[in-house]
From TrEMBL:
Keyword presence, Membrane: yes
Similarity-based family: Belongs to the sodium:solute symporter (SSF) (TC 2.A.21) family.
GO BP terms: sodium ion transport
Membrane disposition: Multi-pass membrane protein
Listed transmembrane segments: 7-25, 78-98, 119-139, 209-231, 238-256, 292-310, 340-358, 378-405, 426-445, 451-471, 483-505, 625-643, 695-715
Protein name listed in UniProt: SSS family solute:Na+ symporter
Keyword Protein biosynthesis recorded: no
Catalytic activity: L-proline(in) + Na(+)(in) = L-proline(out) + Na(+)(out)
Amino acid sequence: MILGLSYLDIIVLALYFGVIVYIGIRSSLKIKKEEDYFLGGRKFGKLFSTFASFGQATSADGPAGVATTSFKNGASGIWSSLLMLFATPLFWITAPWLRRLRITTMGDFYEERYASRKMAATYALVGTIGMMGLLSVGYKAVTTTALAMTGKPETALTPTEKIEKEKADRLFELSNENFTYLSQAEKQELTELRQENPRALFSYFSEDLLIWTICFIVLFYTALGGLEAAFYTDLLQGIFIILLSIILIPFAWQAINQQFGGSGMMQALTNLHEQLPESTFEVFGSPATLDFTWYFIIMAALVSGMTVVAQPNQLVTAGAAKSEDAARTGFVTGTFMKRIVTILWGMVGLCAILLYGGKIMNSDFVWGHATTQLLAPLGLGLVGLMLASLMAALMSTADCLMITVSGLIVNNFYKYFYPERSARHYIWAGRISGAIFLIGAAVITTQFDTILQILKFIWEFFVVFVAAFWLGLKWRRANRIAAWCSILLTLLLFYLIPMILPVVFPAMRTDESLAKLTESLIVTRNYDVKEVDLENRKHDIAQWEKLPQSEKEQIKKPEALTLGGTNAVDYAMPQQAIFWSKGVSVNRADERYGRGYIYLELYLLDRLGWDLSRNPYALNETIRLGIRLLFPFLALIFIALATKPDPDEHLMFFYQKMRTRAIDNSTLKNQPVTERLLFPNSNWELYTWNRKDSAGFLLACLVVILIIGLLYLMVSLGS
């Protein structure tokens, strides 16, 4: 063993990286012009488009992130990666639009539609930051998993680390107790430890070292080979991703049967249902679910579905296809592939609750801990294969995003200052800008505490451009002034000002009114009594017996349960910060202080008289997302109606492109206009659907229903 990994694990990793580097070097020899580097010559058919879509949609945050949220929230945690399921049929319609644009980057869209190179440059800069955040999720997932795989034994901890681990163990112990039967002193201790958030795991490796190592490996092979190298590795890495999605499950089932008796899949699933509370299997969340209530799922799905099409990487995936049929087939099929493997990742999280529910405090370490416990004892190099698979998942996203951002920066920003240079010059500019992007993503990764924090940032960041994109495509009345106002106002009000204010006025972070938390509500639900409930109730009675006499008089003694009856379960919802993106902690002076940037929209609502502390945390998040999605649309529409429309001559060529289907790589001049307007005498560019549009959309809707059915089947088997 070397630092937690066997020699065979290290050999597997070395072989994987050797193949990746070879692909990068070989692809670099084929690059002759900019389109070869940034779009691979627009030559990819349905197979490569499918795996490119699957690869860029599936980073390491997929398996590790879903296992994290499922371990923390039960079956409803699967929605952390399943939110865009409902938007997938829409991609059957929007993917051809992206291919018809016939542009290199999404920034080109804003230049062509609004005749503004400055808007394109602004999109390039802001979009790059958003893509850095998207990649940082993968960085975080791989590093937390690798840390869990290479954890120090207790004998190797330093004195300081031992003290912190003791605090983490105590926090974990109190968190697993029934809150109702904790003494007042224990409740206070639990609150303080939650705010302190001590570490429970210490690795041989530094998280920062792992982040930078992965960063430079991706940089090397992608900078060499461009999009062709990215797509070829996506095909290879897509197979790895599918492999890692299933490899843990049979071993987890075997471990469950060894612990609770029986053999085979069905017995393992039966044990899962018999040993875990019924609330664990509620797909749309139980009162114990903090993050994924049904209304938050609907709002987050709406926001992510609207914003994802405006992301820079969506244009590259669709734009590199040789036709719009290849683009739409690959886009939708690859996205559905991710939704299916998401359910498998959720199964790992549910199994981990039963196997490691009393052993893991930080849910971000679930995937790594499960890998070490289930695969390492076999000595077959499977831990190395898992780590290689996770890195493959990260790299398949990183390489596409790097090329995406390189194209954005070169085409829409760099060329603005350095026009008419050689193709070789711009390719090297793309490589350098891609390197800066990967490094920036690594820096952003270090600024967030958990995977879920980064996910929420990504879901909503592109609301800045969402109105200018959607209305620019479909409403001729949208003009340059209104688009600029929508973009700048959204960026200022929701991001720049909230980030700058706490820096200029640091006292805001400790202001009592801004450090406000949601109330710790007690929610009661009734469930059928299982064996596990009998054991838990015996423990609750023992806890009540330990309470001081004065507190016993205030809390009713829990009644004994009988198998087959009903059990009223009280859930204490944890207090959560309302106004700060990274929550509220306690500093050394025992003052509460806000972390991250401030949510001005929620603070305004609170000051207007709506006491947000009385709302569940998920409701406040739902309100905040709704405001951020609605505002840019309203701003653009009202300002567009109050100002002069853009000249028709400028819009004619743009909408001619959008009405002409891209059946191959032929120039626009050789293609007839094929789309008919649904409302020909209005400002709306809504097209009638042909048989292929309708059939594909309906089939995609059917697949959505089947995937939801598969999710329900997964959580109900064995019940």
